[in-house]
Amino acid sequence: MLGLFDVISSSETYSLDLKYQYLEAVDTFQSFSGQVCFTMSSKNIENVTKEIKENLKTPEKRTHGLLLLQKFLGQCSSEVFMENSLSWAHSLSLILKNNCIEPKHLACSILSRVLEHLPSFPELWREAAGRIIPSLVETLTHTPSPEEMLDDLMMCLSHCMLKFPGPCGQFKNRIELFLLTHFDKWKFRSPEHLAMCFALLPSCGGGGNQGKIHAAAWLEQMDKLLGVMHSILDSLYEQLENGGFFDTINGNL
């Protein structure tokens, strides 16, 4: 197993498709976990994590590193996750700052999985809250990205808000502005991650005594939503009263 891994990962003669087929086989047989066919020694696991780390830092090999991490993450032990997760999160955050869509798409997906598991490890969660999340939220809400990346960015942002609500509090206004800026870009896309982020906004920051701050934030957001709905309805009825009609297909008057 290790010999095959070394040959494929180090050789430039193998295409990315072949490497991906290899990784699919790794996933099918749970090769990294040792549950089915293979039992990898600690040295072999160390070599895999080293390969991931080096590839994530090398632009030419970054996609291979992401694909390898994608398969490895679901099979690694808790001990391996504890040793490497913050390093992975940092590397993935840096990838989100570049302009190449494919690595960013993979990075968002993998980073969301890493963030999802971090609360299970309190010490890692605290370190991530202070060292990873602030810069990550700034990147997600500030770095210009093409529209096809917005769903992935929102998915990653929703995991930040859900798993690290307190640290996200300082960026609450920035997050809200980012969401409102992109509302009109979901006309032909799935809005679930955008809706999730918007729903999580009131829970960002400290909750106060018995959650009073969060409760007040929920009321404020509900008032805003109702105000927007009333404004839209007033606009529709005003046009109708002036002889216009509503186009149910295109959403226009």
Automatic annotation (TrEMBL):
Pfam families membership: RIX1
Keywords, ordered alphabetically: Nucleus
Record bears the keyword DNA-binding: no
Entry's family note: Belongs to the RIX1/PELP1 family.
Subcellular location(s) per record: Nucleus
Protein name per the record: Proline-, glutamic acid- and leucine-rich protein 1-like isoform X1
UniProt gene name: LOC106469458
Organism: Limulus polyphemus (Atlantic horseshoe crab)
Domain Pre-rRNA-processing protein RIX1 N-terminal: 57-184
